[in-house]
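Deliverable D2.4 — example input (structure tokens):
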């Protein structure tokens, strides 16, 4: 027997006997409590020993419940009492505090120096200038709209990323949209469609069309052009985004647990309530690169010429080049492409998908930017980065790597009051944000929280412009990958992207890259199919650079 089994039998026999003797001999409250305790311990322990399906309960009767109780508060104990300011994930205490401070419009400075290890491998930093500049007001908006767009949109550098009604509560959606209106940025609806709560306050919207086609589907789940056109032509809808994949779960459809599906959500999405809402992994209107671009063209026409683009997390590089090849073949280009990073968040995703699939945001943006330059289309397409943006430095790095503007989701939730409890998939969100429980969601004050969204947006952009100016630049579009410094394994600084030379205009289609990964991927891909077999063997860029230098020395010799 284990020690706790022995303790159980001791209490069940001697303990109950002693308790009964004390009660019968002396009576009183104290004796009654002792007897009550021993009897309750005996009943619970007997159940654990004889009927429990849990091994721990059988081996450690009664006290096993103490473990379950402590385990249920493990996240909170770790967060509040154990973790340092810089070691939590996905957002550490320093990052969350920065968001909270900026959202509340209070002091966001630190004292006594950085807590970061500036010599840490892969640590990112900037080189400042002794001639700082002020950012021109005209440089603080980005125009989105290609040659076929008749209603271009001037966007903020910092915007609210895709979060659906259903995943988030009605009050949270309202607060985000009202905050977007006050801040002068756009608010992406997420794949759940443009709900009444997105539309209520009049903030600019990007309507996301996911693989479930929510908001523009018929009874059979097929695309309905009439319902799409009716919504897309609303003045509040500024852009339309087709979702191909999501960084937090690339290759997997969106998931809304049935616990969060209310009659209202079922009506808006046109879905049943008795099972999880799982979107297909592949958008039915975008099964090939050419089909994707034809859908882009069709939505642009149905919307009256508004900017239309698509969102994806990049995996096999050849498959993104297949889309580029389709652009050249059809002459159709999207107005924007949103690159979602593998570090992105979601309310619910398989662990393996979140942990192991996709390019990170900076990698994906750098690749996509170079790919579009290499096929001569970059000037027609706006690049939007999405993935873990808590500070102005996070914003700056994404733009430096090739993005034109940035979306953020989880930090916008933090500005609403999210405490990173990581219970989004349970419908038990303690802050009323990621839940459909009316008792929880009604505690979120729309007016107050919208101010915090506005403050976070305003203060982050203010710091961003100051950071850009500190580098001697007067316009964020002058940021380049080489300006981001990365600590090498040898302790020295290198320019980010320096080992992979940026492409020149039309370099891919003019076949100037023979013998490189770009040439292999371009030769392999086709405009008629997304799938490309992963055959190219990636080697460290340093090796290729060394061989290039060796060949140069031999030629000179």
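Example output (designed residues):
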């Amino acid at each position: 027997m284990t020690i706790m089994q022995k303790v159980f039998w001791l209490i069940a026999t001697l303990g109950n006997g002693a308790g009964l003797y004390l009660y019968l001999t002396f009576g009183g409250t104290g004796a009654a409590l002792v007897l009550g305790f021993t009897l309750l311990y005996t009943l619970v322990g007997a159940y654990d020993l004889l009927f429990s399906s849990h091994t721990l309960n059988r081996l450690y009767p009664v006290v096993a419940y103490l473990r379950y109780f402590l385990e249920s508060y493990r996240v909170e104990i770790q967060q509040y009492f154990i973790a340092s300011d810089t070691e939590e994930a996905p957002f550490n205490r320093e990052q969350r505090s920065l968001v909270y401070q900026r959202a509340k419009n209070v002091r966001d400075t630190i004292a006594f120096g950085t807590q970061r290890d500036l010599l840490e491998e892969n640590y990112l930093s900037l080189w400042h200038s002794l001639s700082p500049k002020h950012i021109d007001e005209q440089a603080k908006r980005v125009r989105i709209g290609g040659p076929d767009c008749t209603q271009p949109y001037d966007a903020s550098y910092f915007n609210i990323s895709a979060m659906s009604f259903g995943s988030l509560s009605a009050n949270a959606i309202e607060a985000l949209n009202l905050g977007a209106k006050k801040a002068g940025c756009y608010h992406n609806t997420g794949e759940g469609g443009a709900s009444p709560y997105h539309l209520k306050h009049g903030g600019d919207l990007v309507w996301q069309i996911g693989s479930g086609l929510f908001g523009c589907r018929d009874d059979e789940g097929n695309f309905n052009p009439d319902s799409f056109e009716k919504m897309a032509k609303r003045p509040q809808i500024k852009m339309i985004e087709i979702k191909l994949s999501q960084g937090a779960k690339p290759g997997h459809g969106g998931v809304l647990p049935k616990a969060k599906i209310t009659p209202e959500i079922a009506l808006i999405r046109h879905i049943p309530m008795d099972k999880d809402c799982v979107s297909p992994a592949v958008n039915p209107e975008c099964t090939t690169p050419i089909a994707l671009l034809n859908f882009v063209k069709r939505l642009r026409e149905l919307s009256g010429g508004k900017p239309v683009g698509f969102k994806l997390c990049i995996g096999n590089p050849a498959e993104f080049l297949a889309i580029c090849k389709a652009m050249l073949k059809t002459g159709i280009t999207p107005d924007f492409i949103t690159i979602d990073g593998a570090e992105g968040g979601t309310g619910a995703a398989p662990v393996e998908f979140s942990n192991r699939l996709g390019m990170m945001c900076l990698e994906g943006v750098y690749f996509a930017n170079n790919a579009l330059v290499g096929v001569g289309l970059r000037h027609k397409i706006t690049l939007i980065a999405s993935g873990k943006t808590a500070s102005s430095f996070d914003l700056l790095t994404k733009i430096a790597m090739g993005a034109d503007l940035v979306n953020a989701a989880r930090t916008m939730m933090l500005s609403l009051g999210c405490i990173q409890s990581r219970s989004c998939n349970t419908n038990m969100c303690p802050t009323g944000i990621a839940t459909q429980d009316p008792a929880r969601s009604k505690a979120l004050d729309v007016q107050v929280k919208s101010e915090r969204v506005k403050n976070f947006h305003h203060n982050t952009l203010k710091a961003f412009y100051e950071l850009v100016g500190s580098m001697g630049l007067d316009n964020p579009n002058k940021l380049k990958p080489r300006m981001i410094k990365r600590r090498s394994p040898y302790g020295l600084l290198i320019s980010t992207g320096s080992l992979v030379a940026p492409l020149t205009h039309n370099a891919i289609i003019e076949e100037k890259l023979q013998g490189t990964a770009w040439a292999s991927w371009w030769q392999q891909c086709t405009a008629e199919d997304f799938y490309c077999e992963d055959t190219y063997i990636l080697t460290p860029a340093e090796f290729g650079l060394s061989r290039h230098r060796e060949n140069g020395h031999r030629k000179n010799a």
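The chain has two domains: 3-77, 124-487.
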